[in-house]
Automatic annotation (TrEMBL):
This is Transcriptional regulator WhiB. It is found in: Cytoplasm. It comes from Streptomyces noursei (Streptomyces albulus). Binds 1 [4Fe-4S] cluster per subunit. Following nitrosylation of the [4Fe-4S] cluster binds 1 [4Fe-8(NO)] cluster per subunit. It holds the Pfam family Whib. The Fe-S cluster can be nitrosylated by nitric oxide (NO). Upon Fe-S cluster removal intramolecular disulfide bonds are formed. InterPro entries: 4FE4S_WBL, Whib. [4Fe-4S] cluster binds at C34, C64, C67, C73. Signal peptide: none annotated. The gene is whiB_3. It comes from the Bacteria. GO terms for molecular function: 4 iron, 4 sulfur cluster binding; dinitrosyl-iron complex binding; DNA binding; metal ion binding; protein-disulfide reductase [NAD(P)H] activity. Its cofactor is [4Fe-4S] cluster. Keywords: 4Fe-4S, Cytoplasm, Disulfide bond, DNA-binding, Iron, Iron-sulfur, Metal-binding, Transcription, Transcription regulation.
Length: 119
């Protein structure tokens, strides 16, 4: 079984096997710093102790912090949405918070737009 990170690497390396891989994932992943690091840093092993998970996630975030395509990676993970791993410097839990805030903001904007103008 491939990890999502590995599938992304495969799409970047062999786009002809994925059809329109460039359209699906965009060219950003070719520049990702994590392509040169161990994928295990970005994805939790089963039954990982909390302290080990936190340390691994912080190490992954340090890699992300120096990545030239961190924002593109983050947006990919938010739009897919990627349910596991560190993507664009955010953990899965942090991405859920961002998505919840985005949905709430969009809902508020829609409600505001639907309100009749006072005056």
């Amino acid at each position: 079984m491939l990890l999502p990170h590995q599938a992304l690497q495969d799409a970047a390396v062999v786009p002809s096997q994925r059809g329109h891989a460039r359209d699906e994932a965009g060219p950003w992943h070719a520049e990702a710093v994590c392509r040169r690091d161990e994928a295990g840093l970005f994805f939790a092993p089963s039954k990982e102790p909390t302290a080990a998970r936190l340390a691994r996630e912080e190490a992954a975030k340090r890699v992300c912090a120096r990545c030239p395509v961190m924002v593109e990676c983050r947006e990919h993970a938010l739009l897919q949405p990627e349910p596991y791993g560190v993507w664009g410097g955010l953990t899965a839990a942090e991405r859920r918070v961002v998505l919840t805030r985005r949905r709430r903001r969009e809902s508020e904007l829609q409600r505001a737009a639907a309100m009749p103008a006072a005056g």
